Predict the 3D structure of the following.
Amino acid sequence: MQRRGFLKWLVSCLAVINGLILGIPFIGTLLSSAATRGKAAWSRVGAVDRLPLGVPVEVRFQSSGTEAYFHRSDLNSVWIIMHSRGDATVFSPVCTHLGCHFTWNQQHGRFECPCHASVFALDGTVLYGPAPRRLDTLPAKIEKGVLYVEYERFQVGTPEKKVI
Ligand code: FES
């Protein structure tokens, strides 16, 4: 092999090695990001024995997940109704009309949104107002007395529940 040919071969080999060193982690990140996109992680909300039965309570908790290349940690809240120590309904705190946070009115036994006066029953159905669909439930599970939630965000202002 001529000296010039050897140098070309050597430079090509170094370029391939350099490409692998830089490219493999990048491709791995893209693949893992694509695999987890749109899938929320389970977040620990708290012990169920501290929650009252049959009465909605708003609970704040820290949720975490990966979006694109970034690990994020957010402070979120959910509305929880414990039907028993092993069964709960968890609502997103976001009104399905335009995204305000609603509250529970204990006196009237209903959820009320302060922005445009949508009113929801204890089971989340719309009683009055412009909300186009019932309150959004979140996936929840109870393991060893601890409630976990998959915190997701949904499109507002539409009759269909769509994760965003
Ligand atoms: S945002 Fe709740 S009623 Fe409009």
Residues 95, 97-100, 113, 115-116, 118, 129-131 surround FE2/S2 (inorganic) cluster (CB under 6 Å).
